[in-house]
Design goal:
The protein has 370 residues and is of the alpha/beta class. The chain is 37% helix and 15% strand. The two termini are 24 Å apart. The structure holds pyridoxal-5'-phosphate.
């Protein structure tokens, strides 16, 4: 028995949906793409959705659609997957890292304005683990400085923030999602951009397809340097089928999280990231914090020896050698660095069995008693 920190949930209906598409006339650029986009828009409450080949492509295209180029800077969190900052580099722009809040690893909105310069173009908040950034404040800052807001919502499909559902872009210009197997729903590889802005939508559709605009008959004109970032019908068929079960998936994740919360709240050595009022956390990750960071690696190793495979989300982005070589120094976001030392993502996914969760909890307690 091996327990990973996250994995997909595929059923027979998913398989049938994919097989039916394989037997149909279109394997790509067919009706399933539109259908997936429409269902997705309906679910999150956005006007438009654009399906793309993965979450990273979604970030890249969102930045391009916002007009990001080599004269610009993009503000984001260091407590994220590298793709949230790489998208700036793809466009020749410079990522600027804003420190996070110690209690939950989310971008500290009170530190954004001091990093805004004449070059700033985009704020890209990350809804880390499924917890939600202070979007109201971030949108206010963006409006004041005429910046574009792109939400990295890869961890937050199904999340609710005050009167809004993440992806409805109430407090942003675009939101992006990933359908990698560890995320809430999967298409193998896949991503989505949502927006309410027609101009951005039309630009994204063209950028996804080599920058080619369809005119009448055989006439097509390439007007941007675009990419082939299409998601194919086979993948969209899986996405449509998965999306039907999103509420069930989130319900199961939340149930697992509540049980962990219950079990850990009286343990001295462990803290965990808490859901706040006015929000619904769909729990992409369940993250514990070891008050004594020196024990983190020992716990990771202990659990691994018991076939429980945890992960650390994330090493601060600018610690990676590539960023170091670009000149980013250690210490620029001290809170994020301290946070990183303490965190561990423990298993959470819809098909995690009760016995498995009991076993995980028992092993963590066993470690702490040693
Ligand atoms: C998964 C993820 C991405 C990238 O998505 P891919 O589909 O793997 O390219 C970007 N940002 C965050 C926060 C993610 O978790």
């Amino acid at each position: 028995m091996k327990i990973p920190y996250g994995k997909q949930t595929i059923n027979e209906e998913d398989v049938i949906s994919v097989v039916n598409t394989l037997k149909s006339d279109f394997l790509t650029t067919g009706p399933k793409v539109k259908e997936f986009e429409e269902e997705f828009s309906k679910y999150v409450g956005a006007k438009y959705s654009v399906a793309v080949s993965n979450g990273t492509a979604a970030l890249h295209l969102a930045c391009l659609a916002a007009g990001l180029n080599e004269n610009h800077e993009l503000l984001t969190s260091p407590m994220t997957f590298v793709a949230s900052a790489n998208c700036a580099l793809y466009c020749g722009a410079k990522p600027i890292f804003i420190d996070v809040k110690s209690k939950n690893g989310l971008i500290d909105e009170s530190k954004i304005e001091e990093k805004i310069s004449k070059k700033t173009k985009i704020i890209l908040p990350v809804h880390y683990s499924g917890l939600l950034c202070n979007m109201k404040k971030i949108k206010e800052i963006a409006n004041e400085h005429r910046l574009t807001v792109i939400e990295d919502a890869c961890h937050a499909l199904g999340a609710k923030y005050k009167d809004s559902k993440i992806g409805d872009c109430k407090y942003s210009d675009m939101a992006i999602f990933s359908f990698h197997p560890v995320k809430h729903i999967t298409t193998g590889e896949g991503g989505m951009i949502t927006t309410n802005n027609k101009e951005l939508y039309e630009k994204l559709i063209i950028l996804r397809n080599h920058g080619i605009e369809k005119k009448e008959k055989w006439k097509q004109e390439m007007i941007y340097l675009g990419y082939n970032y299409r998601l194919c019908d086979i993948q969209c068929a899986l996405g449509i089928s998965q999306l039907k079960r999103i509420n069930e998936f989130i319900g199961k994740r939340r149930k697992i999280a509540k049980k962990y919360d219950e079990e850990f709240k009286n343990l001295e050595e462990i803290d965990f990231l808490r859901e706040e009022e006015n929000q619904l956390n769909p729990y992409h990750l369940y993250i514990i914090k070891l008050k004594d960071s020196k024990k983190r690696e020992a716990l990771y190793n202990f659990l691994k020896s018991k076939k429980i495979f945890c992960q650390v989300h994330y090493v601060p982005v600018y610690w990676h050698p590539y960023y170091k070589n670009l000149g980013y120094l250690k210490g620029i976001c001290p809170k994020a660095e301290e946070f990183y030392e303490q965190i561990l993502s423990i298993p959470i996914y819809p098909s995690l069995k009760k016995e498995e969760q009991d076993y995980i909890i028992q092993k963590i307690k066993e470690f702490l008693k040693r």
